[in-house]
Amino acid sequence: MHRNKTLHSFLLSKARQLTEEWYASLDKSDPTGVYSSTNPAIIENLKAQNFEFHLHLCEIFILEKQAFFKKFQPWVEKVAKDPEHQSTPIHFILREFMRTREQYFGFLEEFATLHSDVTSDQLKTWERLITQTFDETILRFAEETHNMASSKLEAQQEMINELSSPVISLKDHYTALLPLVGDIDTARAKMILEKTLEQCSKMRVTRLYIDLSGVIIIDTMVAHQLFQLIDALRLIGVETILSGIRAEIAQTAVQLGLSFDKVITKASLSQALTVE
């Protein structure tokens, strides 16, 4: 049986020592990240996080696994969200988990030396438990870090999409310009459709210039969505003028059977802006 209140008390009494010895032996020559910081406040917070880790981890010897990780998970999430750890390469962090695990092996051996009734089988059971607990913690930390990175990337991509499809108000405030630049995939085309309708309605636009001169190529699905945008704009009373349509885009539209009959098209934006 892995639970042992005496071992828990022993490791709990060593928590501060574990932290100080860990930090003293820390390789502070990392080129970047929290472990190389010389900022006293960051160092103090790092030690506090490490100390809290030990207070939690030793409870694996008095709690069942499910109850243990339920209490431990907030620490994992807090450190994963910590800006200093987010700026630290993940392999540096995993290295410190492994170094800390070795500390525990050393203290388990010390405990076994102090208590003659501890059998070799008990020691092996505890060492296996420590290994499993660290493995699970590392997995949870990596997963939380991945989720954080994915959320941040998604937010950044959404911001990029919004910034890359701005409806710019022109001289009379009822006329606006939508300059499209770069590759347009299906996801971005959907974003453009939604944001353009929303902005034109909010700005009370009655005429919108859509300039495609910065778009090299679009696929059939995106071309179809572009014409859906034009149709939707017409329904809310917005006249659309297209400019800068490349030959490849025109060919795609013709192949799809999309008609330009109800759309004013101009070779360039400067020509489009002369439309009255």
What is the alpha-carbon Rg in Å?
A: 31 Å
SS strand fraction: 5-15%
Calculate the terminal CA-CA distance, rounded to whole Å. 86 Å
Helical content stands at 55-70%
Structural class: alpha/beta
Approximate shape: elongated
Strand adjacency order, main sheet: 1-2-3-4-5
Largest sheet properties = 5 strands, mixed
In DSSP terms, counting alpha (H) and pi (I) runs of 4 or more, how many helices? 11
Average pLDDT value? 89
N-to-C order of helices and strands: HHHHHHHEEHEHEHEH
Low confidence ranges: none
What's this model, at a glance?
With 276 residues, the chain is an alpha/beta fold. It is built from eleven helices and five strands; from the N terminus they run αααααααββαβαβαβα.
3D structure, described in words:
Helix content is 63%, strand content 9%. With 276 residues, it is of the alpha/beta class. The chain has a five-stranded mixed β-sheet with strand order 1-2-3-4-5. Helix 3 (40-57) packs antiparallel against helix 4, helix 4 (65-81) crosses helix 7 (120-163) and helix 6 runs antiparallel to helix 7. The radius of gyration is 31 Å and the shape is elongated.
